[in-house]
Amino acid sequence: MVDNASTDDTPSILSSFVPRLPLTLLRETGAGKNRALNRALPHGEGDLYVFTDDDAVPEPDWLRRLRQAADAHPDHAVFGGSIRPFWPQDPPAWMAGFKVPLNVLYSITAEKEGPVSANLVWGPNMAIRAEAFAAGHRFDDQVGPDGSPGYAMGSETEFNMRLERAGYKAWFAESAIVHHMIRPEQMSVEWMLGRAYRHGRGIRRFDPSRVPTDGPLLDGVPLPVVARQAFYRTAAALARPLPPSRKRFWLLWREQWYRGLADSFRDKAGPAAPVRQPGALA
Predict the structure, then answer these.
(1) Per-residue model confidence as pLDDT tens digits over 153-210
(2) Domain 31-266: CATH architecture, name and number where available
């Protein structure tokens, strides 16, 4: 268990459980989920590392289903499973009417059993063969939750796509199911637009092919990105006073997405370099 730069009584609380539970306590002083994961990896055991989130509730047979998939497909190294939303209340009708992107917002997956692109394997429900970590692959600590409100999204997506480029194949285990707990505040437009910003800010790390980089730079940002950000900023300003509608939502979404993308150029959060530590795992 990794204490990730806590400033409260976490160390003493964790230590109190050592006599009762088989815990290995570690501390990572740099804030960030990926820093904590990388700190823990050398201490893992077994041939399959399983990952989830603190707001995901697995089905009772979840681990068994992932194990079965790994045993049945030895030529694959990345495994994902179904992520279903657990709503605090029925989602409002406008969410379906506006075609709100549930995958980006809530990591919802509904793939069929079989081989998939690694970018469809997400953090709340994934398993990675230990051989990938033994080869030195690590999570990019410049991506993912780090305590700041505007962090760059795409932590596990960036990692899994990097593994895929290195030759590791992904398999989707449809029957390995977790339920993603959706908090009430995560159903507000304001929260969704914050997610749009973080997704735009992270896109260059996990899918740089979607980013226009041609043309001259303006304040470090490619001119096509500047132009699109200006367009959506103006369109969103005109749409904001209007009644809720699908078009209005998407103009506001794209405004925030391009704001995040532009900021990623300004803060140098560019495409990820290989993140490896050869020989880190015994």
Answers:
(1) 999 999 999 999 999 999 999 999 999 999 999 999 999 999 999 999 999 988 888 8
(2) Alpha-Beta Complex (3.90)
Say if CB 189 and CB 248 are below 8 A apart: no
pLDDT digits (tens, 9 = 90+) for 56-96: 999 999 999 999 999 999 999 999 999 999 999 888 888 88
Q: Which of 156, 169, 163, 85 is nearest to 121 (CA)?
A: 156
Q: What is the pTM of this model?
A: 0.89
Compute the distance between CA of residue 270 and CA of residue 264 in angstroms, rounded to an integer: 7
Interatomic CA distance for residues 241 and 234, integer angstroms: 13
Name the token pair of 118.
């690694």
